[in-house]
Design a protein that fits this description.
Elements lengths: L2 E8 L5 H10 L4 E5 L5 H6 L1 H18 L15 H25 L3 E4 L1 E6 L2 E6 L2 E12 L3 E3 L12 E2 L1 H4 L8 E5 L3 H12 L3 E5 L11 H13 L3 E3 L3 E7 L4 E6 L5 E6 L1 E4 L3 E3 L6 H4 L3 E2 L2 E2 L12 E3 L10 H15 L14 E3 L4 E6 L2 H6 L4 E7 L4 H6 L4 E8 L5 E8 L2 H13 L4 H6 L9 H10 L7
The structure holds flavin-adenine dinucleotide.
Amino acid sequence: MADNFDLVILGSGPGGYVAAIRASQLGLKVAIVERERLGGICLNWGCIPTKALLRTSEIYHYMQNAESYGLKADNVGFDLAKIVDRSRKVAGQLNAGVKGLMKKNKVTVVEGVGTVTAKGKLSVKQGDKTVDLEAKNIIVATGARARDLPFAKADGERIWTYRHAMVPTEMPTKLLVIGSGAIGVEFASFYNDMGADVTIVEMLPRILPVEDEEVSAFMDKALTKQGIKLLTQTGLEGLVPSANGVTAKIKAKDGKVSEETFSHAIIAIGIVPNTENIGLEALGVETDRGHIKTDGYGRTNVDGIWAIGDVTGAPWLAHKASHEGIIAVEKIAGGSPHQMDKANIPGCTYSRPQVASVGMTEAKAKEAGYELKVGKFPFIGNGKAIALGEAEGFVKTVFDAKTGELLGAHMVGAEVTELIQGYVVARQLETTEAELMETVFAHPTLSEMMHESVLAAYGRAIHY
Ligand SMILES: Cc1cc2nc3c(=O)[nH]c(=O)nc-3n(C[C@H](O)[C@H](O)[C@H](O)COP(=O)(O)OP(=O)(O)OC[C@H]3O[C@@H](n4cnc5c(N)ncnc54)[C@H](O)[C@@H]3O)c2cc1C
């Protein structure tokens, strides 16, 4: 006899486990199926352990620059095993936290590899055993995995994916990072700050290509100044590992092909959705380049089958997955949630300096035909930034000149990943420049730059 539920969720990442908690709050009998570790990629192999590593490299950077704060720190060094151990412990703590949350919310956790066998039916393979589950609704939240290069597979020795890069047993001396999205730039920043000689290759004309052009240009200068070599409009044509390193065949902007040997390479060229072998093809669930097609509530084309998170496509972010989970569950429970609005999902890169944004870039807003008012305020005009010794960066705001709608906000500099939420709330509340200008910002804070940027869009900045 199969166990019966109102809802079974396949995959326990930030999409799946958050959906499970909300379902339980709404009175649904819910089970979650996980083949690996509760919490998914985000807290075991993604968002959280990388931030633990980046905290280490940030502190290391400050220790090396102690003198600029009037401090002395001699013989500054590090123990790689302990750095990795701390990051794994942080991940472990959060994994245990999700376990506790499942228990508290009476969510049945089923360990094993799940497959949807028919509408409302799943089987979960647990070694030699199979457990059958039945549910009125099924949410597919199986996430994604790292994309491999067509000509080179990660071996965990010389060629790494993010999983290997997160648990290094030796420090790369000369590192090639392939791809300059958030993950590539974060690893480049970590390893560069820890002393490796880092090169990034990017096929597109600029790094962090989804960000505003001015942000990419600023990051290009900042990372170059830190010693990272950035090769844009550059193709990687080969990657051959050996016992001592990995040789890359690199095609430069001008078409010239050269070879260079690195100690290690990290492949960060995107992800592949986990949609294979989970029964979707047989049920006729529609996909688009591997990603499950859904409407704004997470419904697929097959009644009773829903999908959320990375498996449904960009942006591949934990908070997007969680929010989609909440929407889907509320709809399943008969509520009237708002559909997902992808224009209000913030994106953050936790490198040094940090990058954060929400809404349209200036170029995209122009392309969409808006007449714009653009404000830009530099960190050097902010007292707190100077006091922190972090005077590099800017806050840019893009407004619709006709209505005062905040179309987009783009920030680069210290702690901007903590600041961006102010603008996300403003957009969610459909605030115009008028309310933002009338808002009182605490002094001294970095957030004052958010005010000044709005004022600057209308020629009223005070401190610059
Ligand atoms: C290095 C790195 C850093 C990142 N940093 C950030 C960040 O700072 N901020 C951010 O927002 N996002 C970040 N991300 C992205 C974030 O991790 C993902 O967007 C998020 O984890 C997606 O959540 P999800 O629930 O869709 O899927 P996942 O977290 O991928 O979880 C899916 C789960 O499903 C399980 N599963 C798959 N198939 C089956 C099956 N058949 N049976 C049972 N279980 C199955 C998997 O084992 C997995 O646990 C980062 C990603 C990486 C790789």
